[in-house]
Input
Amino acid sequence: MKKFKQILCIICVLSLLTGCGGKQNKTEKKTYRQELSEEEMSNGHASFDIDEKFKVDANVTMSEVYKDGMKSYYMNQYKEKIKGTSKKFTDNPTVFNRTQKEMEKTLNRLIPGKLSWKKINRNYKNEPVIEGTYKSDDGDKYKMHIVWDTYNNVTGNSDTYFCPSFYMLGEKSDKEHISAVISGLQADIDDIKTDYTNMIEKNVSTYKKAVEELIGRKINDKYRMCSLNAKSAKIINDTQNIELKYDGKQYDLLAFYKDVDNLKFSDIDPGYQVKADEKPDKWAKTTSAGNDHLSSMYDTSVYLVFCEGKLEYIEADSFRETGSVYKNEQKIISPNKALKEVIKFYEKKLLVDEVKIKSIELQYAAYYASDSSKTVKPVITPVWLVGVYDNEESIERIAYFCYDGYTGECYGNEIIPW
Output
C-alpha cells in the first residue's frame, strides 16, 4: 500500500510538470502583429514580426516631426541667375550660382587645392558643359564635369542654364568600384563597415556644411553610409547582378539628402498618369514618356565616395526647389495606414524568401497636382515611403511603396529609386 502511494505521488508530480511544460510552450509561442505601437511611432524605431516570413526592423519618422501637419509646395526649377550665354557668364561661369573662387573656397573645406575651368562647350545647345581640373595641395588631380539643361523646348531660348549637375573624380580613381559602392545603397549592407567608416562618420557635420555651401541648399540631418569591402562586394555582386572584380581596397559612400521643412527630399519617381480632362503645364510636359504618363521631377542625393578614407568622388546637383505654397499645414495620416497597405500587397503573394520592412519614413517627394483649370503642375508634397527589402527574380533590392501623406492614396508600389 505504501509503495502504491509513492507511485501515485510520482505520477501526480510528473503530471504537474507536464502541465507546466505545456503552459510554457504556449507562452513562448511567437506573437505576430500588423501595427506600429504608439511608443514605436514616438521613439522612431520598430522591430516585430508580421508573420513567419514578413518582418519589420525599421526606422520610423517620429510622430513629433509631423504632429502639427505639413505643407506642400509648387515646384520651381533651379537655375543660374546670370544668363548662360552672356559674356559675364562666359568669362566667369557660375556653378550653383557660385563663382570659381567661391567654388574653390568651398572645395578647400573638403580637399585643399586649386580649381581651374576650361572654356564652356555649347555644341549641344540644350546641354552646355564645362570641364575643369582640381589639383590638391598633395599633388592629386581631379577631373570635373558640369552639365546644365537649358529647357529651350520650354523657354524658347538657350539663355538660361537650369539644373546644374556636378561631378568630380580623382584622376586615378576606379570608376567601377565607385559605381559598385553607390549601387550598394540598394543592398542590405548598412551594418557592414570598413576600417575607415567610423572616422568618416565622426566628420559628417563638416562634410554636411561643405555640401550645403557647395550647392547652396539645406541638407537634411539624416544621411546614409554604405561600405565596400570583401564581404559587401560579394553581397553586391550576388544581389545587384553586377560582376565587380574587387580590388581589395576599402570604399565608403556618404549619401546626403536635400531638405524640405526638416524632411528628406526623396529621389524616387512615382510618376503620374494624366487624366482625360487634364492637361500638363509646360514643365510637366518635359517629363512626358508618352501615353500621358509623366515622370516625377525628382531631386537626387549628394554622394561623397572615399577610398581608404580619402575623398575621391563627389556627385552633386540642384534640380528643384520649393516655390509658393500649394497647401498650408494639413494633418498627416498615421504610418499604420501606409503599413497596412504594404501588408495587403504582400498578402497577395506567396512569400518564399524573407521580406523585411527597413524604413517607414515621411519624406517630401516630387509629384503633380491638378489646379481648378485642370492644369497639371509639378509639386513637392509629403509622402509616406515604406522601404522593403525582398527578393524578386533572384535580385534582392530595396523597393519603395509611396503613399500620399495627407490621404494615404497609393502613388506607386515597388519603386526603385534613381
Residues 1-24 have pLDDT under 50 and may be disordered. Residues 2-28 form the longest helix (27 residues).
